[in-house]
Amino acid sequence: MCETGEKCDSGNDNVPMSEQDTWKDVAPISQDDGANTICPIAYTDEYREMMGYLRAVMSKCEVSQRALDLTSRVIVVNPGHYTVWVYRKKLVEELGSNIENELDWVTEISEKHHKNYQLWHYREALVSRLLDPKAVSEMTEEQLVVHPVIRRELFFTSSAIESDSKNFHAWSYRQWLVRTYGVWEQELGFIDTMINEDVRNNSAWNQRYFVLMGDGRGRPTKDAGSPMEGSLADSEIDYATDMIKLAPNNESPWTYIVGLLVRHAPAKLYTVLLPKLKELAADGSEYAAAMKTTPFYWSALVDIYEQQAKDLPDQADDLLAQASEVCDVLATDHDPMRNKYWEFRKDQLVPNI
Amino acid sequence: MSDEATTDEEKGIFGGLFVNKHVEYIKSLDKRHDEIEYWMTEHLRISGIYWGLVALHLLGRENELDRDKIIKYVKSCQNTDGGFGGHTGHDSHLLYTMSAIQILVMYNVLDQINGDKIIAFVKSLQDESGEVSGDCWGEKDTRFAFISVAILSFFHAVDQFNMDGVIEYVRRSMNYDGGFGSQPGGESHSAQVYTCLAALAIAGRLDIVDRDRLSGWLAERQLKSGGLNGRPQKLEDACYSWWVLSSLKILGRVHWVDRQRLCAFILSAQDTEDGGIADRPGDIADVYHTCFGICGLSLAGFDKYPLDEIDPVYCMPVRIAERAGLRSWMNNVPKTWK
């Protein structure tokens, strides 16, 4: 392929395809406009010519190196053209192309088009062909992370995420990689690095939950409602509150720790998290001012008091009254844009009978 | 008549909404053949027509497109496998099959195509576990779970599908923040939230949703500008006016966002010279953001112009959904939500 340095005259953009030897036996097929347009075609000559030849080779299902080269050129210009990907996949299979080279080519495309859906899915298919997950299922994680295929994919995805730290596709792909080959432990280190680089990276917080609690596939997982180990809950509370200290007005660690505990360790909300938050917000604490001005602090208090009232009915009246006051503060001072939400939350604060 | 006497309404501007400009913009999209973008977006042309048609419907100007030409074109995109490509000669894909059917439903001509072949195409994309791919390429996503269910519902054929498998896939894609990702484990994203809620609405299984937590997370998507983002720490974007508000509409909680400020944000993203709406103020308009910006205004109750009401599950006017017998999802909303 042109992009990997092989000789390929169809990649010579200076010579029109109609004048290249490779293409002299092919008559390009012009755009079938359906019933959509009555105007003459007027797109740029180069693109028009390329698409004409593509339609011609696809119409006869040609399996050839020149067809493969042509799909490279089309995809580089317009990776959203999903039909050409399907054709390319077939060509690679039938020509018996080198999968390593193909993966290198996908890597190059990724740099320019990292938000394209097709290339990430294609990458999964190629990597699965290079390394059958079943063939390495007996290996330990230490062995797996140094396997050349896995090591390269971990490196590739971490580079992609470093250049666009919230890239939805890259994180999804990384989840596939971690789950498919079972490299869970190394992932926590990667997540730490990403959160340390940007504590507001919600994608990294989501990945933390994915690694610790699983996703319902592959790893022993904890469904919502199933309890987690107390020591893990404690260490996650420490971790999240440390991150809250760095930037109190950051939605991600608040949502993470409250969501995690509600699902897997509800009592820890008021036995461990609440005292820590109160300490941070107490007079004299260097975080007091920042804590008290972020809606996330107050919002967490409502969640915590609500859970506590549910678990401790004899204190419910007092706890719900406190939660109700907090809702008022949010509706009027800290989060007036969502005052309807806080009014609703306040109305919900009634003791379970 | 002097220029000074020309009122905003005569110019087609209502409470800051440039109605006439948007209509002209949408009508011009099929004529921009000298622009490379026109050709580069060929593979999703049919969705472009769908977005334009929805916007025109909401503006009450749907007759400004050539109905017969569009119907003929849509039919030309159907392949022998029953599915539709994004344009004539492109492979079948669920995304474009959905757009094609939505257009045909809006024109009330769904009976002109072979529903059995479409049903067979959709069924062919579900695996044994119930997960659904978009096409033969094999990518799986909660978007495709929704679209497959929606397409089958157009033909009242939902019972021919492994719905338990779809519901389980959606349930496993629910996160600790109450939202949904593109697959189990994936980060919550408001567009994926919409697809999951819409799928559950059609399936009559909204009961599995953590309504309050999810509604709170969606309301949190509103930023100081009044615009909505898709997930935490991302920029506001006019298209999330649809993804977030349609979700809140299904949840019965549209009033949890500040609707006036949202309308002001959407209007600020208009191109007041050439028409159309962009993702945010100052950017270039496109038909996708034009459609979803206007959908957002409709859901937010913009009252300076009689925008048609939009169905939050099927993304087409309520009166059309009613005509097509597609409003039964409302009967399946949990009783405690009403």
UniProtKB/TrEMBL annotation, chain A:
> What family classification does the UniProt entry report for this protein?
Belongs to the protein prenyltransferase subunit alpha family.
Q: Does the keyword Magnesium apply?
A: yes
- Polar residues: compositionally biased ranges: 11-20
Q: Which cofactor does it need?
A: Mg(2+)
UniProtKB keywords? Magnesium, Prenyltransferase, Repeat, Transferase
Q: What is its EC number?
A: 2.5.1.58, 2.5.1.59
What one GO molecular function would you report for this record? protein farnesyltransferase activity
InterPro entries registered for this protein in UniProt: Prenyl_trans_a
Q: Does the keyword Magnesium apply?
A: yes
Q: Where is the composition biased (Basic and acidic residues)?
A: 1-10
Pfam families on file: PPTA
Query: A GO CC term?
Result: CAAX-protein geranylgeranyltransferase complex
The protein's name is: Protein farnesyltransferase/geranylgeranyltransferase type-1 subunit alpha
**Gene designation per UniProt:** RAM2
Disordered as annotated region, ranges: 1-20
State the organism named in the record.
Coemansia spiralis
TrEMBL record, chain B:
**Annotated family:** Belongs to the protein prenyltransferase subunit beta family.
* Gene name of this polypeptide: BET2
Q: What is its EC number?
A: 2.5.1.60
Species assigned in the record: Coemansia spiralis
Annotated protein name in UniProt: Geranylgeranyl transferase type-2 subunit beta
Describe the function of this protein. Answer: Catalyzes the transfer of a geranylgeranyl moiety from geranylgeranyl diphosphate to both cysteines of proteins with the C-terminal sequence -XXCC, -XCXC and -CCXX.
Reaction catalysed by this enzyme = geranylgeranyl diphosphate + L-cysteinyl-[protein] = S-geranylgeranyl-L-cysteinyl-[protein] + diphosphate
Positions of the Prenyltransferase alpha-alpha toroid domain? 18-316
Which processes are annotated in GO (biological process)?
protein localization to membrane
Instruction: Name the enzyme group at the top EC level.
Output: transferase
